[in-house]
Design goal:
Layout lengths: L1 H25 L6 E7 L4 E8 L6 E4 L7 E2 L5 E6 L7 E8 L6 E7 L3 E7 L2 H5 L8 H13 L9 E5 L5 E5 L1 E6 L4 E6 L3 E7 L4 E4 L3 H7 L1 H4 L3 H8 L8 H19 L1
Length: 260
Amino acid sequence: MKQMIKNIILVSAFFIFSNCFSQDYELRATPYVKCEIAYKDGTLEKGFLRLASSAFSPQFKKEENEKSRKIDFELIDKIVSNPETENERIFQYLNHNQNKFKIFVELIYNDVLSIYINSTDSDDLFYSDFDRQNIREMMAQAKFEGRSEFTKRLKLSDTLNLPNGKKIALPMRYSYYYGLDYGVAHGITPKLNYYLLKEGSTKLYKVEKNKRFIKNAKEIINNCPIILKDLENNQVNIFDLPNFIEHYKDVCQTENSFEN
């Protein structure tokens, strides 16, 4: 009887340990990042922020060695990471015109029409400056590079040029396929979506093809017949955001000033 109980305890311990190891095996690095949080009530907090399971479950602590607490993202106006440095970035939770749920976005260009980006993986957007490969991915990559006699390491990220002149590195996730004497690695990166926010508004409008943008972003263009006509005739390309914004400022602000 004692031996049976002992065996049960050993088996249970094995499964508990295996489960914990499996979780650690899968987890990505989610470090605390130095941030300044501006709340909607006008207050500020400086400290360290971590996005653990989701961008919508932020954890914050004022000092590195203290216990963190969860913050309701609805209370946050904006998050400034690495404040007052050349790596400063601004993140917000904003409404948009695609559905009723808020999205986690980064402000990359501030103007009459501001540009925001959103990623299919919000954590990867916030942590784009970090290498977040988990152990399984590292082992799979090492196996592929060793088995296929790969002479160079697979690139870990895909660097994109943003409309504000800066660059962002989005992590690549690989799938591997093996034959008898070869291996193939297929890498994908999270998809970026671009949004525009009109000065004085609180709703983002997704950047999409001219025809759909005309239909879905009436708040931005309805008071400016010239830009509406240019979009209808494909004389401007909404995806060329810096030039579109400059054209918008030239024709729409001038037109509105004449009306006033």
